[in-house]
Amino acid sequence: MLLYNITSIIDDTVADSWLKWMEDVHIPSVMASGKFVSHRLLRVLDSPNEGVTYCAQFVVEHMADYLDYQQNFAPALQKEAQVIFENKAVSFRTLMEYIA
To answer: For 42-69, how does the pLDDT look when each residue is reduced to its tens digit (9 = 90+)?
Structure first.
């Protein structure tokens, strides 16, 4: 099992609209890819950054599913976020493996 984590730092001026978009549009689109078995959205409470920091996490069972998502789904979804929240949000992605 793998955990795909996207940490996003959101400008305060768009934090509410970003959160609504994540819950109503982005997360459902990611899950509709059929590659992930579950997800969660967390707010970072002790972030040293300005703005609001969130982590969206998606669980994938097989590396092949993750790689397929990255090749066939992620580019369009990431582009959509960049267009909608231009210069108001920055994200970085991490892939982790469950150990225990």
So the answer is: 999 998 888 999 999 999 999 999 999 9
Spatial strand order in the sheet of 2-10: 38-44, 52-60, 2-10, 89-97
CA 2 to chain centre: 14
Q: Is 99 helix (H, G, I), strand (E, B) or coil?
A: coil
Which two structure tokens, joined as six digits, stand for 100? 């225990």
End-to-end CA distance of the chain: 10
| Structural domains in the chain, sorted by start | 2-97 (3.30.70.100)
Q: Where are the alpha helices (DSSP H) in the chain?
A: 15-21, 27-32, 63-72, 74-84
Supply angle C-alpha 26, 23, 56, rounded to 5.
Answer: 70
The structure's pTM equals 0.93
- Please give the Cα distance from 95 to 58 (Å, whole number): 10
| Contact by Cβ (8 Å): 10, 86 | no
